[in-house]
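Hey, can you fold this?
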Amino acid sequence: MVGGYAIWMGQSVILRVIAGNLRVPLRGRLVSETTDVVRLRIADSWDVDIFKSMVLAVEHDNPVYVLN
């Protein structure tokens, strides 16, 4: 079954998440999806499950490089 997040799998993203009165950007890589949850890999060995109902937006994470 292909979900709405299938195009984002394996890509570096920023999830805009709402929790109560807080709106938080979470940076990581989407690794899986179920009917209710997306799994975000924040560090090499740290995966976090986030309810889809908490996700406001998904954006590409474009790293910025500063050259001196």
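Oh, and this one too while you're at it.
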Amino acid sequence: MTTVLWLLGPSGVGKSTVGWLVYRSLDRASYVDADQLGLCYPSTADDPENHRVKSTALGALWPEFKGSPLVVSGFLDTPEDARRYTERLPGADIALCRLRVGRAELRARFLGRGWLTDAVEEVLDGADALERAPDFADFTVDTDGRAPSSIAAEIRKRWTA
């Protein structure tokens, strides 16, 4: 069975950075940044986050990943979004790990990127929505004030590939 670790959380929480570090710590693993799978624009009004495109692409790639651990990073808003992807990974043992960060640090990280700065309030609203939503992740890791290597090490302790 192929084990899949999906890192989710708002933009700026560290999904890609931490996902890459977790991937590098594994033998014979693969890594996918779901955002890269959905770089098809303009998106449609009924799917502004391109989840349909991303989940279809991930499903098409799935046979190539079978048999080795897969680390995926990508924002999921709801359990329904998660299901859209996980249904395309038949036979996978999937763990959803939510990365969480406080509002002040999230704002600083996002603005520190220097691009799309006008979207910071939307990102903060998305983070707030995750806080209010029923927790659909299997486990949550706080990232405030922590080095990415420390976060990746905690995830590796909590997730067995």
